[in-house]
Amino acid sequence: MHINVEKTTINGLNTSFTINDYGAELCSVKDKLTDYEFMWQADPKIWPRHAPVLFPFVGKSALNQFLHCGKVYPMGQHGFARDNKFEITELYTDLVTFTLRGDSDRFPQFPFEFIFNISYQVIGDDLKISYKTYNIGNDNLYFSVGAHPGFALPISNLSEYLIEFNELENLEAHLLAEGLFDGNTSSILENKSKLILNKELFEKDALVFKNLKSKTIKLKHLHSNFSIEMDISQFPYLGIWAKVPCEDFICLEPWQGLADKVDFKGEISEREGIVKLAPGAEHELSYTIGFQSPN
């Protein structure tokens, strides 16, 4: 099926940002001085996405379905927003807002009415990404939201990179088995602020952290000026993922929401990390990314 994808570009002082209307997905961040491309360019043989938005689920649901008021609904991993076209509802030189409207007619697999906005705003050469969800129905809305940006690495060798946390951390990664939490954890850091990367860290799946103290994280290359800095202070969870054996990109993923446990059989309202939004209410959170090219 052919999908007509339109792109919108907004500009910072020295950086351009391009977003697809399909999935409201950030697909390009370019340093206009060096032409360096920061975003993974969606090689279909490896990982065919750039920075998918995760909504109304983050992660995988048990048996690829969920319960609401005793009724079973199908739900694929990371929800459906990333696979739908959004409407542009605001556009300026430094800001664009994309909107997805939903009800049980358009999305029968999700029995709630909502408006979901994603805004991209340039501040200098940083990018602020905001998610705002409105409950326009008569019942409580249950959902989660998250980011999954993939950043291209100037050198394809994960062991040349580290992630720096702004606090000393004792990090336990909650491990996934076929996309679901199996109850196992792995100690990643003990009273340190720097995580040296290597491909072995990602041999099973993403690293998922639930109890970060840090409000900012920074991906740094050991042998150049390249860095990606993220303010994730509004998000309770963080995923880090690389699709090994490929070492060309890494995903830094602030999440409000989590995958299910392997044995989860409860209602959607009982999912860990789920947001409950009353009729007429709205929910907003955002994160900011700063970019430094290798040169």
Could you explain the architecture of this structure?
By secondary structure, the protein is mainly beta. The protein has a single domain (7-292), classed as Beta-galactosidase, Chain A, domain 5, CATH 2.70.98. Helices cover 0% and strands 49% of the residues. The protein contains no helices and 22 strands. A nine-stranded antiparallel beta sheet has the order 7-8-9-10-22-18-17-14-15, with no helix packed on it. Strands 4, 12, 13, 16, 19 and 20 form a six-stranded antiparallel beta sheet that branches. It has a three-stranded antiparallel beta sheet with strand order 1-2-3, with no helix packed on it.
Which SSEs are present, and which pair or pack?
Blueprint: E1 7-11, E2 15-20, E3 25-31, E4 53-54, E5 65-68, E6 71-74, E7 87-91, E8 95-102, E9 114-123, E10 126-135, E11 141-143, E12 145-147, E13 150-152, E14 161-177, E15 180-196, E16 207-209, E17 216-221, E18 227-231, E19 237-241, E20 249-256, E21 275-277, E22 282-292
Antiparallel strand pairs: 1-2, 2-3, 4-12, 5-6, 7-8, 8-9, 9-10, 10-22, 11-21, 12-20, 13-20, 14-15, 14-17, 16-19, 17-18, 18-22, 19-20
- How far from one another are the termini? 41 Å
CATH class type: Mainly Beta
Detail the poorly predicted runs: none
Q: Tell me roughly what share of residues is in helical segments.
A: under 10%
Q: Element order, helices and strands?
A: EEEEEEEEEEEEEEEEEEEEEE
Secondary-structure class: mainly beta
The quaternary state of the protein chains shown equals: single chain
How many discrete domains? 1
> What overall geometry do the principal axes of the alpha carbons give?
globular
Mean pLDDT: 95
| CATH topology (fold) name | Beta-galactosidase, Chain A, domain 5
Radius of gyration: 19 Å
Strands, total number? 22
Individual helix count: 0
Strand order of the largest sheet: 7-8-9-10-22-18-17-14-15
